[in-house]
Task: inverse folding
């Protein structure tokens, strides 16, 4: 296997003739103790796991993921818990890609170098900071590069040609295209327009282009997979946690079942 786990993940999916499934959950939700089991249930079904770093002001997120951050913080989740959970997941799932996703305040407060070192040691492959634009990411990018971590970049329907070129030139791992202008959990944008934008992005990069925001069903995932290298799903999986807060066994099963249905659909059949 290549030393670049993300590249290996996407290559494996290409060999299988399908798009990668990228799934998100917030670390520490609903508690640091239970979160490891919930994350592992999702990790067993996805190609790349996005681990959300809980933050007190998740401005790009909708109410479902905001509530997940609130639950995680209320339960006492700290960045040390995020690193510990990641380390445990890496041992359990050695082949999947792992990406930290969140807001720049967290690594900035730790110090980019210290954050990158701990993220790499825990087994992460990349970092996506939703509020750190490429024009201002030099110090963070340098720390990530020093530890072999990919800087994942976001692009959106409002991204100009110049912004697309800049983001692609400074990205690693994959490009995350946001299918709508808004917050997580909203409805997906028009598929034809999303496809057109993805085609435009491909003119500027050889990296995989993945699409997220608003994908909530196997049918939507399949429609996006027709043109995207990866399908990113977050709020749908977090909502399985929300819907079973009183029953940990049902929560874990719901996350696993929801992810398995979408994975099966991406492989060519609906469960």
Result:
């Amino acid at each position: 296997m290549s030393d670049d786990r993300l590249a290996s993940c996407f290559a494996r999916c290409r060999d299988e003739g399908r798009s990668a499934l990228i799934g998100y959950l917030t670390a520490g939700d609903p508690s640091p103790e239970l979160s490891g089991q919930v994350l592992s249930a999702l990790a067993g079904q996805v190609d790349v796991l996005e681990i959300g770093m809980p933050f007190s002001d998740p401005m790009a997120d909708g109410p479902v993921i905001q509530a997940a951050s609130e639950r995680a913080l209320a339960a006492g989740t700290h960045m040390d818990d995020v690193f510990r959970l990641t380390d445990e997941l890496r041992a359990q799932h050695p082949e999947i890609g792992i990406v930290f996703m969140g807001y720049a305040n967290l690594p900035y407060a730790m110090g980019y170098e210290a954050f990158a070192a701990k993220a790499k040691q825990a087994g992460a492959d990349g970092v996506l900071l939703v509020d750190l634009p490429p024009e201002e990411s030099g110090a963070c990018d340098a720390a990530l590069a020093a530890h072999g971590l990919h800087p994942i970049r976001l692009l959106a329907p409002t991204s100009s040609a110049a912004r697309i070129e800049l983001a692609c030139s400074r990205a690693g791992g994959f490009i995350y295209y946001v299918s709508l202008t808004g917050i997580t959990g909203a409805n997906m944008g028009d598929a034809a327009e999303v496809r057109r934008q993805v085609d435009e992005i491909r003119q500027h990069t050889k990296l995989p282009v993945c699409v997220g925001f608003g994908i909530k069903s196997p049918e939507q995932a399949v429609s996006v997979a027709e043109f995207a290298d990866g399908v990113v799903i977050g709020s749908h999986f977090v909502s399985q946690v929300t819907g079973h807060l009183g029953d940990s066994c049902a929560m874990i099963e719901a996350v696993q079942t929801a992810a398995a249905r979408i994975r099966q659909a991406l492989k060519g059949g609906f469960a």
